[in-house]
Write a structure and sequence with these properties.
single chain, alpha+beta, two-stranded antiparallel ribbon, 5 strands
Protein backbone atom coordinates (compact mmCIF):
# COMPACT_ATOMS: atom_id res chain seq x y z
CA UNK A 1 0.00 0.00 0.00
CA UNK A 2 1.30 3.44 -0.96
CA UNK A 3 1.82 5.85 1.90
CA UNK A 4 -0.41 8.91 1.52
CA UNK A 5 1.39 12.19 0.77
CA UNK A 6 0.80 15.45 -1.07
CA UNK A 7 1.37 13.82 -4.46
CA UNK A 8 -0.97 10.87 -3.94
CA UNK A 9 -3.60 13.20 -2.49
CA UNK A 10 -3.35 15.59 -5.45
CA UNK A 11 -3.72 12.66 -7.84
CA UNK A 12 -7.16 12.03 -6.32
CA UNK A 13 -8.37 15.58 -6.94
CA UNK A 14 -10.84 15.96 -9.78
CA UNK A 15 -10.69 19.59 -10.77
CA UNK A 16 -13.28 20.89 -13.20
CA UNK A 17 -12.16 23.04 -16.08
CA UNK A 18 -12.06 26.70 -15.16
CA UNK A 19 -14.30 29.11 -17.04
CA UNK A 20 -12.29 31.90 -18.57
CA UNK A 21 -14.06 35.05 -17.41
CA UNK A 22 -11.20 37.57 -17.45
CA UNK A 23 -10.71 39.81 -20.47
CA UNK A 24 -7.43 41.62 -21.18
CA UNK A 25 -8.34 44.39 -23.61
CA UNK A 26 -4.72 45.42 -24.15
CA UNK A 27 -3.81 42.02 -25.64
CA UNK A 28 -7.32 41.05 -26.81
CA UNK A 29 -7.07 37.88 -24.71
CA UNK A 30 -9.09 36.04 -22.09
CA UNK A 31 -7.73 34.56 -18.86
CA UNK A 32 -8.74 32.63 -15.74
CA UNK A 33 -9.54 34.92 -12.80
CA UNK A 34 -8.34 34.08 -9.29
CA UNK A 35 -11.91 34.56 -8.05
CA UNK A 36 -12.99 31.76 -10.41
CA UNK A 37 -10.08 29.43 -9.59
CA UNK A 38 -10.30 29.49 -5.76
CA UNK A 39 -13.91 28.27 -5.37
CA UNK A 40 -13.32 25.61 -8.02
CA UNK A 41 -10.27 24.10 -6.26
CA UNK A 42 -11.27 24.65 -2.62
CA UNK A 43 -13.69 21.74 -2.20
CA UNK A 44 -11.47 19.23 -4.03
CA UNK A 45 -8.47 20.18 -1.91
CA UNK A 46 -10.53 19.90 1.29
CA UNK A 47 -11.74 16.41 0.30
CA UNK A 48 -8.10 15.31 0.17
CA UNK A 49 -7.10 17.15 3.40
CA UNK A 50 -4.98 19.68 1.51
CA UNK A 51 -4.78 23.32 2.51
CA UNK A 52 -3.56 26.17 0.35
CA UNK A 53 -1.37 28.68 2.18
CA UNK A 54 -0.24 31.96 0.67
CA UNK A 55 2.46 33.99 2.42
CA UNK A 56 4.49 37.07 1.58
CA UNK A 57 8.07 38.05 2.34
CA UNK A 58 10.66 40.40 0.87
CA UNK A 59 13.97 39.45 -0.68
CA UNK A 60 17.37 41.13 -0.27
CA UNK A 61 16.35 43.74 -2.89
CA UNK A 62 13.21 44.60 -0.90
CA UNK A 63 10.99 43.07 -3.63
CA UNK A 64 7.80 41.30 -2.56
CA UNK A 65 7.91 37.50 -2.84
CA UNK A 66 4.72 35.44 -2.97
CA UNK A 67 4.88 31.86 -1.70
CA UNK A 68 2.00 29.45 -2.33
CA UNK A 69 2.11 26.13 -0.54
CA UNK A 70 -0.21 23.14 -0.88
CA UNK A 71 0.11 21.10 2.33
CA UNK A 72 -1.33 17.64 2.93
CA UNK A 73 -2.36 17.73 6.61
CA UNK A 74 -2.21 14.00 7.55
CA UNK A 75 1.28 13.43 6.11
CA UNK A 76 2.65 16.96 6.65
CA UNK A 77 4.06 16.89 3.10
CA UNK A 78 3.79 19.83 0.74
CA UNK A 79 4.69 21.36 -2.59
CA UNK A 80 5.28 25.05 -3.01
CA UNK A 81 6.24 27.70 -5.48
CA UNK A 82 7.38 31.25 -4.99
CA UNK A 83 8.16 34.22 -7.18
CA UNK A 84 8.62 37.96 -7.20
CA UNK A 85 5.33 39.71 -7.73
CA UNK A 86 5.43 43.19 -9.16
CA UNK A 87 3.26 44.47 -11.97
CA UNK A 88 5.50 46.74 -14.00
CA UNK A 89 2.49 48.49 -15.55
CA UNK A 90 1.33 49.99 -12.24
CA UNK A 91 2.75 52.19 -9.47
CA UNK A 92 2.73 52.09 -5.65
CA UNK A 93 0.57 49.61 -3.75
CA UNK A 94 -1.30 48.75 -6.96
CA UNK A 95 1.98 47.44 -8.39
CA UNK A 96 2.31 44.92 -5.56
CA UNK A 97 -1.40 44.02 -5.28
CA UNK A 98 -1.76 43.43 -9.00
CA UNK A 99 1.43 41.36 -9.03
CA UNK A 100 0.14 39.19 -6.16
CA UNK A 101 -3.13 38.51 -7.97
CA UNK A 102 -1.38 37.77 -11.26
CA UNK A 103 1.21 35.41 -9.78
CA UNK A 104 -1.33 33.65 -7.52
CA UNK A 105 -3.26 32.76 -10.64
CA UNK A 106 -0.22 31.42 -12.47
CA UNK A 107 1.21 29.52 -9.51
CA UNK A 108 -2.12 27.77 -8.84
CA UNK A 109 -2.56 26.96 -12.52
CA UNK A 110 0.87 25.31 -12.60
CA UNK A 111 0.82 23.56 -9.22
CA UNK A 112 -2.61 22.05 -9.92
CA UNK A 113 -2.31 21.69 -13.70
CA UNK A 114 -5.56 23.60 -14.19
CA UNK A 115 -6.93 23.85 -17.69
CA UNK A 116 -9.41 26.36 -19.09
CA UNK A 117 -12.86 25.42 -20.26
CA UNK A 118 -12.69 25.23 -24.07
CA UNK A 119 -16.08 26.92 -24.38
CA UNK A 120 -14.67 30.09 -22.83
CA UNK A 121 -11.02 29.99 -23.97
CA UNK A 122 -9.94 30.37 -27.56
CA UNK A 123 -6.26 29.67 -26.70
CA UNK A 124 -5.32 33.01 -28.25
CA UNK A 125 -6.63 31.95 -31.67
CA UNK A 126 -8.92 34.95 -32.11
CA UNK A 127 -6.22 37.47 -31.25
CA UNK A 128 -3.63 35.78 -33.49
CA UNK A 129 -5.74 35.81 -36.68
CA UNK A 130 -4.23 37.73 -39.56
CA UNK A 131 -5.18 41.38 -39.43
CA UNK A 132 -6.47 41.33 -35.83
CA UNK A 133 -3.32 42.48 -34.06
CA UNK A 134 -3.66 45.54 -31.90
CA UNK A 135 -1.59 48.54 -32.71
CA UNK A 136 1.13 49.20 -30.12
CA UNK A 137 0.30 51.95 -27.69
CA UNK A 138 2.23 55.16 -28.08
CA UNK A 139 4.28 55.73 -24.94
CA UNK A 140 5.29 59.25 -24.08
CA UNK A 141 8.17 59.33 -21.67
CA UNK A 142 9.94 62.38 -20.35
CA UNK A 143 13.22 62.43 -18.53
CA UNK A 144 14.41 65.12 -16.13
CA UNK A 145 15.05 67.44 -19.07
CA UNK A 146 11.53 67.22 -20.49
CA UNK A 147 12.66 65.17 -23.49
Amino acid sequence: MTKENIYTALMKCEFKKVKVEGNNAMFNAKYMKVKDIIPMIELELQKQNIICIGTMKVNEHNSPILNIQLRHIPSDTFIESECTCLDDTKKGSQQIGSGITYMTRYILQRLLNLVPDESTDDDGNESSKSGTFQKPRKVIRKDNYGI
